[in-house]
């Protein structure tokens, strides 16, 4: 996996690189892992402008894209940033494996061969259910794998 990081400080860069790599090795096949590029961009205005903590983008000419850009709001806690990256990595897996195909022009998404209307409530979208369901587990396993579980920032609570 080719990983590039832009924005943020050196510590955030190292953490982001590490969690992208860990998530990629955990949720992607070895073949997919070796063919994907992920660029992580830290943005101080993402949440302010769009109301989201993270998003993933790709060149939509390919139904199974291989080059992705994750944009993450870096004004929230370090833990929330890492969880958001894990969440977006689940979406990368969904796109790369062809589980999810964005059909933006017709206002829908193809999820595992079914057309899902984008007007479906965010929390009911199957791709979001999977991503939210896996983000915390990926974060915790990554923190434990890297012996970060005793650091206070990995234990912090947020509302």
Architecture (CATH level 2) name: 3-Layer(aba) Sandwich
First-last Cα distance? 33 Å
User: Any idea of the CATH class?
Assistant: Alpha Beta
**Overall spatial form:** globular
**What is the CATH topology descriptor?**
Collagenase (Catalytic Domain)
Describe this structure in words.
The protein is built from 6 helices and 7 strands. The chain has 159 residues and is of the alpha/beta class. The protein has a single domain, classed as Collagenase (Catalytic Domain) (3-Layer(aba) Sandwich), CATH 3.40.390. The mean pLDDT is 90.
List the defining traits of the structure above.
alpha/beta, 6 helices, 4-stranded mixed sheet, single chain, about 160 residues, Collagenase (Catalytic Domain), globular, 3-stranded antiparallel sheet
